[in-house]
Design goal:
alpha+beta; elongated
């Protein structure tokens, strides 16, 4: 199988946890997915953003079903809101520690390529 014209991109994923959840979701729906760049991301997760994420490609016949599955997900999937019980000074201290001392990798949400956001394909002139 090739990853050429037989496949369509339905999502770009930047987090290993999002990737695992989406792959298992597609597997439970019996949709074959080809994750392009998965092994680069597994070797160096912070590099995933620089590489443009992991591209999830599905067969053309399954593309509409895959987009329906993605459209059924919440807008920011798999995220838990931060607790609001700490005073502002504690949040500022935590933010300082995270940004300056620990410097975590960026957390990006997956990007879904849904039908309404994609320009229609043009047929080649005969």
């Amino acid at each position: 199988m090739s990853s050429g014209p037989d496949f369509e991109t339905v999502a770009f994923v930047y987090s290993p946890s999002d990737l695992a959840l989406l792959l298992s979701l597609f597997e439970s729906e019996d949709i074959f997915v080809l994750p392009i760049g998965r092994w680069h991301a597994s070797v160096d997760p912070p590099l995933t953003t620089a590489l443009g994420g992991v591209e999830l490609r599905v067969h053309r016949e399954d593309a509409d079903d895959a987009r329906l599955v993605l459209a059924s997900l919440p807008p920011v999937p798999f995220r838990v809101p931060l607790a609001r019980f700490l005073p502002h000074a504690a949040w500022l201290l935590l933010l300082f520690l995270l940004l300056v001392v620990l410097a975590p990798p960026p957390r990006q949400i997956p990007t879904f390529v849904l039908r309404g956001a994609v320009a229609p394909r043009r047929e080649p002139a005969a």
